[in-house]
Amino acid sequence: MRHSHFSYVRNLTSTLFRSSSRSAAYSSFFSDFNADSTLASLKLKQSSASEDSSNVAFKRISSIYYGDSKTVKKPLSKRNDNAEESQIQSSISWLSNINNNNILLKRKAPSRKKKQQHLFQFSQENRFSKLIAICGKVLGPEATIELFGKVGRDPGIKGYNALIEMCIEKARESSDEDVVVEELGKVFHLFKLMGERGFRLEEQSCRPLLLYTIDMRMVEEFHFFCKVIKDQNPSLIARLGYYEMMLWLRVNNEEKILELCNLIAKNDGEEISGLRENYLLALCESERKKEILELLEIIDIKKLSSAESVGKVFQALGRHLLEPVAENFLSDFISSGHETNNITNFIASYAVSIPNLSVENVITKFKDLHRTLEVSPSSSSYEKLILHSCALGKVHVALDIVGEMCEVGLTLSNGMLQSILHTCEETSEYNLVNRIFSTIRQYDLETNDKTFRCMIDLFLKMKDLEGAYRMLDEMGELNLKPSASLYNTIMAECFRENNTSDGVKVLEHMQSADVMPDSETFSYLISNSETEEDIVMYYKELKESGIQPKKQIFMALINAYAACGQLEKANQVVLDPLIPPKNLNQIKCMLVSVLAAHGQLSEAINYYEEIKRAGHNLEPKDIMSLIEKIRSNVELDRLLLLLEELNDTEYWNGACCRIILYCIWNKDISSAVNLCKLLKNKYLSDELVMKVLFDKVFSLIESTESSHLQASLELLSEIKNKLGLVPPKEYHDSLLSAHAKSSKLHNAN
Predict the structure, then answer these.
(1) 709 exposure class (CB count in 10 Å sphere: 0-12, 13-18, 19+)
(2) Nearest to residue 6, comparing CAs of 79, 86, 78?
(3) Taking the model in full, what pTM does it have?
(4) Torsion over CA of 474, 479, 483 and 487, rounded to 10 degrees?
């Protein structure tokens, strides 16, 4: 399937991205490195011994930095190295350096990372989504679809969206046009599959692609995909108008912007009302005040499709300081009997969007407009002010607003409490938790387990254990039963602060409160046991309590035994019959890392080979741990296999540098050069490659024996001549100094 897919994508892109205005041809998608830079091609032969003469070494350093530039051989490009790659015409447009000063496009990007609140609670849907994400990253979108098809599962809309976002993210991260073409081809293929499997193409699926083509100013590609989207879902035509206007704003195409505005002005029929609204919404995100005002003269914003759309108009009015216009629209809404809650929200949207206005003045403007228009604020409009205050880190102001709205009988959502508590954490105003809790009690505000968890976290950040325990007692008074997870939070913080005695006492508090400890509780206790007897005691207590041990227990046992110097007992943990079979490989992976960290390399490698024979792979961090501890007496090809397992992970660069260091220690300059070539292909920036090499390789050589310094100098000469990599001049003095120190030590000996 994979081969046929690439053939399919190649044919697609050759027609999709063909343009007579572009002469650049794209190479085939699936060659990551050229033929000379693959791991398999690394030569494993030993290089000859380096020269010992100090004069020769100093000359070599100077030649590396100041040698004739004509002698530096520039490496062949990736495209030239692989002559068999098929050429395809592309019309991807990289329209750089276009003057775009008169536009400000504001979009709220969804947070890529959310703070994990519960360590051991995942819904089935979350686990399935996570599985799709992992498979997509490791196997690629096509193979993931095929895999789930074989087991009778379809990824569903969320799964397809995750794979599409993955492709777009990869395209954003790459400066290689071939990679971009490949990822766009994959997205097209995913759109096609969704249609074939009965899924309707909605905006959520298309949005990442459309925003990417807009950001990268890919005009032709944008229109191609718009046609694909229209064909699959004609109801999206109006919404695509928003993205079309955003595109012309992005590339600053005055002619097209005027054309779309004239289209709205000349056609007031209902058939294009959706297009009018979306063109207006796009303009409202720009700095084009003149065009916005012109459109607002001919568009009745009371007829916009949603209160959210109207709110965006008022945001634009606030940003452009158009208060008279805003007041006229608000008066019009009031006279037409519009819902009061929406009107007060429009006022809030306007006020919080006014630029360079302090939060206190925003609140004043909010109140003045309500007084002028004779309307009362609602809970939702007050909450907009609270969120605005939190965004500016003004927790005191947010709490003042809470008190004010509660005094007039309005209710505060639990989500607002969460926002205020998170802002306290971000601004390090932990002591405000006392005022927050007083407000909760004073106005009998709605709370839940998550609210108390946040407050407990703030007390712990102040190292106030008494305050944290008081929150648990207060939960009981509010008929909320504290969970083991909340006690575990306190226990974890105690151990993190090396407060072992208070950490152990948490178990006593749990017993007093009749709260049953869980597997996480015992994993903390075992991990922080100071004696073998304590390890045995807690594990015995766990089994007697009837709690089903999770993988964290066995990982804790391995770490705890190793910390006590009982490596043999750490070895025996993997033989425990209570280990869930699905977690056995992960626990063995951790054992490999622990054994390597404690110098038991032969044992670690034996377990690694056992894991490989069983058809599994080590976790990237465990592979990295193994590579870091290997210094000699291990074949280079084994290290290269480990490196290959780290492809497409964040650990690859560090592991590659560590193996280069290994090659220097063992005077294998040829292999070190090839690894530097791989690193160069990954980074694509010579300056960045040399910075990484000096930070993670050569800086570690400076204080070692002279033979290693000689080998490092030989490597510097080789990568200069063969790869065109010249070290930055700021490292020149450090190299000379290191060699001088080494020479003095050698002469003294």
Answers:
(1) buried
(2) 86
(3) 0.69
(4) 10
